[in-house]
């Protein structure tokens, strides 16, 4: 490998690292409390969206029960905190485990149904879970929800009750989840998942146990949603069934779609656009929603593969331009040489 | 010759429609068997039943003498019985390289080197300059060859090819034929469903003819061409003699 190509390969990684550092140090540039709160929500939805992006983009499985699994993770942390007095760290493995198990359970209908039918089933599962959360008063607090407080808890030296520090902690979780998903995507198993996404029958004929691999993929996405749920409940310090309806699933879906489901950082970019773009308009609420809706339609029309696909498309455009320019130069040089030869 | 695959009184019903009706069949190691029959005669249903994509309604499927009726496609692939598909033969959104990588990983090999991938492609006559192309962008004939390459990476004892010549141009058809001869030379058995007789028959050791979900004739290619029941199934009663 020559020096130039090594630099070219390293540059994107350096860019991602730099952006990561800037995001982590956001509190140091003195944002308002509102911006910081919105940034924390963005990062939490980026974590949850990363799980859906993995499932949808890599394994080709779309679920509308993602918010329900996200909610179960949140309820696990809240119920454990309130009833058992567990800390954030103690509740974390439980939230992840509950997310993984419920994610796996959502996958079960996919073993007998396909495509749109499966998506409709996941929608139904999400609705059923929301009803259970609402009706099981003794455990979930029903429509009144559960209030929790982190008190003076610290995790990795970050105080949960301090807005800036909690934001930085969520960025660390996003980094860990992204690294984990990067490793999975680039692994041998990642190739198997993409193959299943492209052609499940062929994958089965080549020896893949489709049911087992789908269950694992759903469990991983569920575990990430469970983690995001716990991060969410410790941010808002209140939990109610209304936070985890199909509307929240659509939010995850939009976040993933906007950034690009095929990209590791697609949901993160999507979450950034979803939460911050409406703020930039600064219009009255209803006009703002209309403007944001129109912008979403425009984005999906112009970049159906997600905002991150624009980078690849731009790169390919410039590459084509360079090739065209080089060919023109070569042609001109050849013509000049031919003319010179003719004169001599 | 060692018997690999056999079926006994195999049947498959779809509601009131009897797609397969008491099919007795066998394929031996290293043997190339052609499976012919008019449209709707049950060839693809037979493929689906023996490869685990459909569960038979009656009868038994055996692999090396053991009952494998109702086994999953994955389990059968691990035993050495692999198939290709008529339409969905590759992973269209993945590169050719990643297609082959998939099969190598599934075979449990550690070696994912470029050389290993090239070897799999050149065995079926594909050039290695297509490695970075999306499989879905390849011409139909190259797709077919790639599909066969994926199945062969698993080093099967028996490969079931579903219409390998369909939609291919002359060059690709010639390449598929060459692959069939290579399989034979390497002792790999094959069952081939095909309508294109002029391409199929020269490659086959034995041909089995289906009609209305039943076996109506069996023999060498020469015998099957002159079989009255087969001629009747294809051309009607006037051409049976």
Short description:
The complex is a heterodimer of chains A (344) and B (241). By secondary structure, chain A is mostly helical.
Compute the CA-based radius of gyration of chain A: 24 Å
Averaged pLDDT of chain A: 87
Query: What is the spatial order of strands in the main beta sheet of chain B?
Result: 6-7-8-3-9-10
Please describe the biggest sheet of chain B, giving its number of strands, its sense, and whether it closes into a barrel.
6 strands, mixed
Please name the CATH topology of chain A.
ABC transporter involved in vitamin B12 uptake, BtuC
Secondary structural class of chain B: alpha/beta
The run of helices and strands of chain B is EEEHEEHEHHHEHEHEEHH
How many strand units of chain A?
A: 4
Question: How do the strands of the widest beta sheet of chain A line up side by side?
Answer: 1-4
N-to-C terminal Cα separation of chain A, in Å?
Answer: 44 Å
Strand content of chain A: under 5%
* Alpha-beta classification of chain A: mainly alpha
Describe the global form of chain B: globular
Q: Which CATH architecture of chain A?
A: Orthogonal Bundle
User: Low-confidence parts of chain B lasting 5 or more residues at pLDDT below 50?
Assistant: none
Strand fraction of chain B equals: 25-35%
Sheet with the most strands, sense and barrel status of chain A = 2 strands, antiparallel
CATH C-level label of chain A: Mainly Alpha
Structural features, described:
- The complex is a heterodimer of chains A (344) and B (241).
- Chain A is mainly alpha-helical and 344 residues long.
- Chain A has a single domain, classed as ABC transporter involved in vitamin B12 uptake, BtuC, CATH 1.10.3470.
- Chain A is built from 14 helices and four strands.
- Chain A has a two-stranded antiparallel sheet with strand order 1-4. Chain A has a two-stranded antiparallel ribbon with strand order 2-3.
- In chain A, β2 and β3 form a beta hairpin.
- Chain B is α/β, with parallel strands linked by helices.
- Chain B has a six-stranded mixed beta sheet with strand order 6-7-8-3-9-10, sandwiched between helices.
- In chain B, a hairpin with a 2-residue loop joins β1 and β2 (17-28).
- The mean pLDDT of chain B is 89.
- The interface between A and B is medium-sized, with 18 and 31 residues.
């Amino acid at each position: 490998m020559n020096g130039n190509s090594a630099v070219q390969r390293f540059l994107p990684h350096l860019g991602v690292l730099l952006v990561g550092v800037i995001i982590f140090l956001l509190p140091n540039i003195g944002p308002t409390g509102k911006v910081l709160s919105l940034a924390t929500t963005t990062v939490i939805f980026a974590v949850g969206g990363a799980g859906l992006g993995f499932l949808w983009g890599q394994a080709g499985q779309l679920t509308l029960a993602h918010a329900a699994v996200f909610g179960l993770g949140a309820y696990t942390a809240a119920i454990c905190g309130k009833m058992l007095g567990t800390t954030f760290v103690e509740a974390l493995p439980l939230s992840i485990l509950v997310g993984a198990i419920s994610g796996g359970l959502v996958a079960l209908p996919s073993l007998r149904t396909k495509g749109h039918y499966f998506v409709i089933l996941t929608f139904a599962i999400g609705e059923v879970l929301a009803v259970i959360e609402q009706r099981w008063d003794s455990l979930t607090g029903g429509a009144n929800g559960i209030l929790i407080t982190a008190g003076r808890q610290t995790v990795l030296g970050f105080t949960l009750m301090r807005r800036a520090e909690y934001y930085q902690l969520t960025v660390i979780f996003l980094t860990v989840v992204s690294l984990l998903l990067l490793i999975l995507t680039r692994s041998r198993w990642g190739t198997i998942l993409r193959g299943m996404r492209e052609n499940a029958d062929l994958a089965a004929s080549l020896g893949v146990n489709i049911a087992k691999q789908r269950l694992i993929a759903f469990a991983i996405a569920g575990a990430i949603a469970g983690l995001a749920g716990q991060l969410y409940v410790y941010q808002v310090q209140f939990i109610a069934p209304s936070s985890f309806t199909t509307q929240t699933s659509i939010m995850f879906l939009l976040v993933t779609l906007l950034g690009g489901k095929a990209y590791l950082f697609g949901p993160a970019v999507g979450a950034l656009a979803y939460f911050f773009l409406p703020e930039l308009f600064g219009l009255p609420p209803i006009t703002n929603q209309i403007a944001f809706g129109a912008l979403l339609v425009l984005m999906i029309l112009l970049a159906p593969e997600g905002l991150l696909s624009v980078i690849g498309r731009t790169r390919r455009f410039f590459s084509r331009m360079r090739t065209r320019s080089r060919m023109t130069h070569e042609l001109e040089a050849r013509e000049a040489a031919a003319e010179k030869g003719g004169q001599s | 010759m060692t018997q690999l695959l056999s079926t006994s009184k195999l049947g498959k019903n779809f509601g009131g429609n009897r797609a397969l009706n008491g099919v007795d069949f066998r394929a031996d190691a290293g043997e190339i068997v052609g499976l012919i029959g008019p449209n709707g005669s049950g060839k693809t249903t037979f493929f689906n039943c023996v490869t685990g994509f459909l569960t038979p309604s009656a009868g038994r499927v055996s692999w090396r003498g053991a009952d494998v009726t109702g086994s999953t496609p994955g389990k059968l692939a691990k035993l050495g019985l692999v198939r290709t598909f008529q339409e969905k033969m590759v992973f269209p959104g993945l590169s050719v390289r990643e297609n082959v990588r998939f099969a190598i990983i599934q075979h449990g090999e550690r070696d994912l080197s470029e050389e290993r991938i090239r070897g799999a492609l050149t065995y079926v006559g594909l050039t290695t300059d297509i490695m970075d192309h999306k499989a879905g962008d390849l011409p139909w004939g190259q797709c077919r060859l790639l599909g066969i390459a994926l199945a062969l990476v698993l080093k099967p004892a028996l490969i079931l090819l579903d219409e390998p010549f369909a939609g291919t141009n002359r060059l690709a058809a010639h390449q598929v034929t060459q692959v069939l001869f290579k399989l034979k030379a390497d002792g790999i058995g094959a069952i081939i469903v095909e309508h294109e007789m002029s391409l199929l028959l020269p490659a086959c050791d034995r041909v089995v003819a289906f009609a209305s979900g039943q076996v109506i004739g069996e023999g060498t290619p020469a015998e099957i061409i002159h079989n009255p029941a087969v001629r009747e199934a294809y051309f009607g009663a006037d051409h049976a003699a």
